[in-house]
Amino acid sequence: MAKVKGLKCRECGREYPAEPIHVCEFCFGPLEVVYDYDEIKKNISREKIEKGPKSLWRYVDLLPVENPTVGLTAGFTPLKKAEKLGEVLGLKNLYIKDDSVNHPTLSFKDRVVSVALSKAKEFGFDTAACASTGNLANSVAAHSAQAGMNCFVFIPANLETQKIIGSLVFNPTVVAVEGNYDDVNRLCSEIANDLGWAFVNINIRPYYAEGSKTLAFEVAEQLGWRAPDVVVAPAASGSLYTKIWKGFNELKKVGLIDEVKTRMYGAQAEGCSPIAQAWREGRDFIKPVKPNTIAKSIAIGNPADGIYALQVARESNGAWETATDEEIIEGIKLLAQTEGIFTETAGGTTIAVLKKYVEKGMISPEETVVVYITGNGYKTMEVLEGKLSTPVKIKPTLKDFKEKVLARV
Ligand SMILES: Cc1ncc(COP(=O)(O)O)c(C=O)c1O
Ligand SMILES: N[C@@H](CCOP(=O)(O)O)C(=O)O
Fold it and tell me: Domain Tryptophan synthase beta chain-like PALP, which positions (predicted)?
């Protein structure tokens, strides 16, 4: 028996075969992969996983791919006990899940792209594409180069230079669209309908999104096969956040962990916070917004998984909170200066929001808290210009060193 039963509409429940489709043709709801958990349970065990590859593919039994061929090094990133940051915040069991060192392109997107392009290969596609705020573009470009696929990445024209170069180096066609991510995404949906390409986050989306579950699988394994009490994770489309929740619950379904009592705390940038705003106003629907934040990687004004992210927060006793641009910068600095981890703006948002949850008394000191750091600071360095101390300039003399440097410290 196959582990994947097919696809199912998240709105009306209609079922479909596992094909490169993403929308229900009756109600236009998004499609999601459905597994045969009884069958998986017969095959899976902690021991088998622990003997598997040191990559996300150790969890292949819970992923919608038969034969992984792309992105064989993604995942299995460190879970670091954050002693110093924990001390600052008054948390005794704080952990950082550090996807800023994911391979090959330094963000969690290497997980979803490995799964999406392995699946695209299985389907027989030869051209990969995506709509991206930068990190996804980097990852699709790198994995396409490795897989020998043609590649087109579509980005908003105003992205950070480091993110643009981080795609161009792999030699895809980079299309810089005049507009924000939501304009890019709309255009890509039209192109995906028109051309036979594997748009990882459009027509391959049901499979792509499953890659984020591995962020939950790894954390549970790294904690000694248990789910944390609290998760803090950033959101743009809300896919990552909802799939972390799905991941913990799947581990329970197949008997690898005993319980899931995790409170799912979400983080958005105040300047693009359609999910957090809905949460604040007690709505169960999303009002799209026009993004205006330095956190460009998570600047999605009309989040595809927004309503499901609200549902997960309700189901898990979680919440949503935001950080201003200044708080995001402070978050980046705080993580760097306590734990030596340089994260990008999405991570700065997550740390700033973690601080707020603690200040509001929503996390108690003994709880096991996992904070997801999903991207690398070397890609968004421009936001720190003018926000850090400057190098001390000296002549190459001992005298100058003593007067200008030692006298100051
Ligand atoms: C670094 C980083 N973190 C978090 C996210 C949010 O992921 P999602 O769109 O699945 O909510 C993104 C992209 O959207 C990202 O690039
Ligand atoms: N942040 C993403 C944006 C698109 O990804 P999606 O999963 O929200 O569709 C990126 O890095 O490009």
Answer: 73-375
